[in-house]
């Protein structure tokens, strides 16, 4: 395993929820990263943000690691969940709530319901 791969694996192993994104959760640097971080923040999910713009090796490394071409990428309990479109769909269908509940990740159910109501 390369250093980048080892580093990615360590981040995923030590944080229940990780978002590899462009920018930070306080200051996303692209619309897709902003949308996913916004959903997680709104739902009150505690997550580790990893700014791939700070490290070119990491930026390419995470794409190779997950075999997924785009960023952001969300991991929950060591498992790759998806990118912006998948997270948006899962949020609106309630699947993201179910995943968090299954994995023991705390989130605000009322906030999750509000997102769905607003997008119904």
Structure description:
This protein is of the alpha+beta class and 120 residues long. It is built from 6 helices and 4 strands. A 4-stranded mixed β-sheet has the order 2-1-3-4, with helices on both faces. The termini are far apart.
Topology:
Layout: H1 3-14, E1 17-21, H2 31-42, E2 48-51, H3 56-66, E3 73-76, E4 79-82, H4 84-93, H5 95-103, H6 109-118
Parallel strand pairs: 1-2
Antiparallel strand pairs: 1-3, 3-4
Tally of DSSP helical segments: 6
Q: Write down the overall geometry.
A: globular
Q: What would the average pLDDT be, to the nearest integer?
A: 96
The end-to-end distance, rounded to whole angstroms, is 45 Å
Spans of at least 5 consecutive residues whose pLDDT stays below 50 are none
Give a short account of the largest sheet: 4 strands, mixed
Order of helices and strands: HEHEHEEHHH
> How many individual β-strands?
4
Observed structural traits:
single chain, 120 residues, alpha+beta, 4-stranded mixed sheet, 53% helix
Summarize the structure.
With 120 residues, this protein is an alpha+beta fold. The protein has helices at residues 3-14, 31-42, 56-66, 84-93, 95-103, 109-118, and strands at residues 17-21, 48-51, 73-76, 79-82.
